[in-house]
Design a protein that fits this description.
Number of strands: 11
Helix content: 55-70%
Number of helices: 9
Strand content: 15-25%
Strand order of the largest sheet: 3-2-1-8-9-11-10
CATH architecture of the largest domain: 3-Layer(aba) Sandwich
CATH topology of the largest domain: Rossmann fold
Largest sheet: 7 strands, mixed
Structural class: alpha/beta
Length: 357
């Protein structure tokens, strides 16, 4: 009891609401009478007819569980619970339990009637004997309402699930960065767990949550921009690759055109030579036709030579026509490639500058 009084006296507040929830011995209730609070409320599992100066209300039951209609009432004050007794019977051999009717009210109605204002000091003292996890974590309305919470609890299974409830509560507080302190009680294996936050803790918490949300949003936006940048760089690289391939094709076309021009010039020279040969042959034929002394054998030879020259000339003319068509086709393709390259220069001038460098 001395540790309980010391913890109460260490809190420098005038409380708006001071609430006791659970089962408490008379010494605990008497110690609360000296607490500086405007509104004191006792929500006991069993009725305390001897209590004065403290408002009594029905025990608050959680909204997320089935209606609690009974509890396990102990013959020793402070050990009644909505949980089934376990090793408490070995710890206190003389303790007895019996099922009793529970007068209750919804937790939401209880908290709503308290009218807890922002930035005010409010305290809850809980002695739930194994139900701590349900009342502070599974339903966190008490945890989110009171800036000071003092819990009498045990890490042993004195009641059904008490050990898991104790460990689960500590784990939840650590995960959510809620500061707490543990003090051993006079009776083993019980201890006091104190959660102490300033009256404005809820406002600070909301601002912190908003800051965390803003940070997460900024990080997500940064990630999206990074992805866009990577995609843009990839597209830029692909465009540069396309331009390089177009340059290679253009250079290949230019080389092929140069080779075709050289072939055309050679064919023109051969054509000129054949025309000259044709003219010479024609002249010779004319001269020989005028000569009456040319023999039939020579005439036949000349006719064969003439036919051969005509055939070669015809083949050259055919080659020239095919070459001319090929040049016209290549000219069209080269013109299209030049126009495409011109369009690329207009759309991506920075890429063509890099290519020239």
């Amino acid at each position: 009891m001395q540790i309980f009084k010391m913890l109460l006296n260490s809190l420098p507040y005038q409380f708006e609401n001071f609430v006791l929830i659970g089962d408490f011995p008379k010494s605990t209730i008497n110690a609360v009478k000296s607490v500086n609070a405007k509104n004191k409320v006792l929500c006991s599992l069993s009725e305390n007819s001897s209590v004065t100066d403290i408002q009594q209300q029905p025990f608050p039951v959680l909204d997320n569980v089935e209606t609690q209609s009974t509890f396990n009432e102990a013959n020793l004050k402070g050990f009644s619970s909505v949980k089934q007794p376990a090793s408490i019977k070995q710890l206190l051999p003389g303790i007895l339990f019996e099922s009793a009717q529970l007068e209750s009210q919804p937790m939401t109605s209880f908290l709503s009637n308290l009218s807890v204002a922002d930035n005010t000091a409010n305290m809850a003292v809980l002695n739930l004997n194994g139900a701590e996890l349900q009342y502070l974590v599974e339903d966190d309305s008490l945890l989110n309402t009171f800036n000071c919470i003092l819990v009498s609890c045990s890490s042993n299974n004195i009641f059904d699930g008490a050990e898991d409830s104790y460990k689960g509560l500590l784990s939840h507080l650590k995960e959510n960065n809620i500061a707490y302190s543990i003090f051993p009680a006079e009776v083993h294996p019980f201890s006091f767990l104190l959660i102490h936050r300033p009256p404005a803790w809820n406002s600070d918490s909301n601002e912190l949550k908003q800051a965390i949300a803003d940070k997460q949003q900024a990080e997500e936006s940064l990630t999206q921009h990074k992805e866009l940048l990577v995609n843009s760089k990839q597209q830029n690289s692909e465009k540069q690759k396309e331009i390089a391939e177009m340059f290679q094709k253009l250079q290949a076309n230019e080389q092929q055109l140069s080779e075709l021009k050289a072939q055309q010039q050679k064919l023109n020279e051969e054509k000129a030579w054949l025309e000259n040969e044709w003219n010479n042959a024609k002249s010779k034929v004319e001269e020989q036709s005028q000569a009456s002394k040319i023999t039939n054998k020579l005439n036949l030879k000349l006719q064969v030579d003439l036919d051969d020259l005509r055939k070669k000339y015809s083949e050259k003319e055919q080659n020239e026509r095919e070459l001319s068509e090929l040049i016209d086709e290549l000219y069209v393709k080269l013109k299209q490639a030049s126009e495409f390259y011109y369009e690329l220069e207009k759309k991506y001038p920075e890429l063509t500058d890099e290519q020239r460098d």
